[in-house]
Amino acid sequence: MTPQINPNTMTDEAKTAEESQRVGPPYQTAKGVHDILPDDHEFFTYIKKVVRHRARQHGFRRITTPTFEFTDVFNRSIGDTTDIVSKEMYTFQDRKGRSLTLKPEGTAGVVRSYLQHNMQTLPQPVELYYIEPHFRYDRPQKGRYRQFWQFGLEVIGESDSAIDAQLIHLFYTVLQDLGVADQFKLQINSIGCSAKNCRPKFVVDLQNFYMGKERNLCEECSYRLPKNPLRLLDCKKEDCTILAKLAPQMRNYLCPECKEFHGELLLLLKGLGIDYVENDKLVRGLDYYTKTVFEFWDKSQGAQNAIGGGGRYDGLIEIMGGLPTPAVGFAAGIERIIENMKACGVKVPTKDDIHVFVAQLGFNAKQKALLLMRELREVGLKTVGALGKGAIKNQLRVADRFKVPYCVIMGITEVRDGTAIIRDMKRGSQKIVKYETVVEEVMKLIGAENLDTYTPGEVLY
Ligand code: HAM
Question: Are residues 281 and 375 in the same domain?
Fold first, then answer.
């Protein structure tokens, strides 16, 4: 279903009613989306750095898929009875009537790209990571938005429990690096495979179990029962939870291969020192999973605000038109991580701090200030200057707002004498130096290790 509210089709009365209720500035963000303001960008930048570092360390390379895809890419992969596909996608038609959808998650696009670019001809497995915004028409609340950022990692082309273990460990390491690992506990389960006596048998028995008990199910579960009975296991409604406790358990249906795979994975996780809870009600909200599924749950809030999750999807590449190819991956919600970092009091290093402020008075001083600022920036000193016509006192007030440690001041006297004043803003002391030595003097004060330099060709992203 497509959420479509077209302001052009609203009646005049409706528009006036909406406008009269509006408080504050005339335009605000749409419901469920938000600006990333500079303070939060410091968290975003830090998280991206940590993810890139850990991903590269493991041989992953970055991929960016388009913000929208043909709708069928998501229908086919995520499953048309899932909440994401049936209720949460932002779907629209282009001018030629083709159905397109803003990506609600990253895996489908990555798999489409793997096939489109023949990545099965590369040495396997192919390891890819992404840091992207995603879009879901979810009910907005704390930690749940309509545009949200995820980082995700996918390993396509090989099946081994050690790959799953390494990926979960990588996720855990990122959470440790970000200072929030203690807040979360790994929940893990196996939902089996498509072998006749594995999940298909479980699904039939599950449906039989619920037959005749439909009256006790919530509306959503009654609707899901014929097509997606696994989801009944993780419903949070009281009556459904009671029934789920009595329902058959997947662990009793795992085929020998799935059982061995899962047993090995748990052993490997233990060996890597990762605490987990075996949760046989964990099924995940996307249809493409096989065998391993996992989530990291907030220890105090449970499933409500999982910080991330993933699992194995050995059948998806074939569903999307490729040869049978095993794969595993996960994604984590960046806004949720930031909320947790703030709650834990994690401070992130900032690169936005300014080293030096240049104040000037008179046209000649301004001309010299422009040249000086260019030189200061070239050596890696982050520099701002007041280029307006304000009095020196007012300019120094602006410098205070930037919290700069040093100011360079040039007025009519300094221009005439070929000098400049360097003011230590904390101590309130100042000294006069020759104009030619200003850059060198400030560099010494800031320290070579703190300069923000960039060599053309250097990889910064
Ligand atoms: P997912 O569980 O749907 O999995 O999303 C992963 C994470 O994205 C969630 O645990 C949560 O932190 C965050 N997230 C999801 N929806 C929202 C929202 N509306 N607002 C804020 N954060 C949200 C996937 O997306 C799979 N593609 C993961 C995967 C990768 N499986 C295999 N490979």
Answer: no
Q: Ligand 1 centre and the CA of 331: distance in Å?
A: 6
Is 248 exposed, middle or buried, given 0-12, 13-18 or 19+ CB atoms closer than 10 A? middle
The closest residue, in CA terms, to atom 16 on ligand 1 is: 144
Is residue 290 domain-shared with residue 387, that is, in the same domain? no
Last residue of a domain, one of 343, 373, 397: 343
The DSSP code for 159 is -
240-284 pLDDT, tens digit per residue, is 999 999 999 999 999 999 999 999 999 999 999 999 999 999 999
Q: Which residues contact 392 (CB under 8 A, 6 or more apart)?
A: 359, 361, 409, 411
Considering the chain, what is the average pLDDT of its residues?
A: 92
In-domain check, residue 232:
no
Q: Ligand 1 test: best mutation among 110, 150, 289, most atoms within 8 Å of CB?
A: 150
pLDDT digits (tens, 9 = 90+) for 123-175: 999 999 999 999 999 999 999 999 999 999 999 999 999 999 999 999 999 99
**Cα-based angle 115, 286, 314 (whole degrees, multiple of 5):** 45
Any atom of ligand 1 within 6 Å of the Cβ of 107: yes
Ligand 1 atom closest to the Cα of residue 313 is 32
Task: State the residue range of the domain holding 423.
Answer: 356-450
Cβ contact 39:46 at 8 Å: no
- Shared-domain flag, residues 273 and 408: no
- CATH number, position 327: 3.30.930.10
Residues 403 and 263 in one domain: no
Task: Please indicate, yes or no, if residue 438 is contained in any of the structural domains.
Answer: yes
Give me the sheet containing 91-93, strands edge to edge: 68-70, 99-102, 91-93
What digits encode the pLDDT tens for the residues 381-403?
999 998 888 899 999 999 999 99
If asked whether residues 71 and 92 sit together in one domain, one would say yes
State whether the beta carbon of 148 lies less than 6 angstroms from ligand 1.
yes
Residue 305 near ligand 1, beta carbon < 6 Å = no
Q: What pTM does this model have?
A: 0.89
CA dihedral (329, 260, 244, 304) positive or negative: negative
User: Which atom of ligand 1 is nearest the CA belonging to 145?
Assistant: 20
Q: How far is the CA of 106 from the centre of ligand 1 (A)?
A: 9
Give the chain's domain count: 2
